[in-house]
Amino acid sequence: MTPSAKIALGVILGMTLVGCGDDGTGPSTPPDVKGTYDATYSFETTFTGGGSSGTCPGTLRITGQRGQNFSGDFTIQPSDCRAAAGGFTGTVQASGAVTIRGLFEEWINDETGATGLTCSGQAGQNLTGTFSGDELIAESGTVPLTCDDIDYDLEVSVTATRSAP
Known about the structure:
Blueprint: H1 3-18, E1 35-47, E2 50-66, E3 69-76, E4 84-92, E5 97-101, H2 103-115, E6 119-120, E7 126-132, E8 135-139, E9 143-147, E10 150-164
Antiparallel strand pairs: 1-2, 1-10, 2-3, 3-4, 4-5, 5-7, 6-9, 7-8, 8-10, 9-10
């Protein structure tokens, strides 16, 4: 190899190494969210001429997690709410940001089905929030629903603390 070829090869290898810098943070992995949580479910609904709000105890169980994807089930005990139960799926990012799918729809379908109301608007609504330590907090934001030709705005949230792995 000629001296100029050796220099060119050295420059190319040096540039390759510079391009492979390490910021020292390593790969980010989502936190382990599996476990049983003591949960408080809250709701606030408003409509022309009125509204209501309440809190309801229950559980949230995350029974499976693969990477950022998780699944589980929930129960809501009767108090300000009717009893409800169902399944959900979700994702958790390395930052702790969570999205829960299915819980909102299952809860509202149980609630409105028990009262005989026919509602639309609850399908596909997600809860979004955060997971930190052993606490998960997520909310729906305001969701417009129509039940038996009455327009409602509904917000639901869950605050849950892990009680068992």
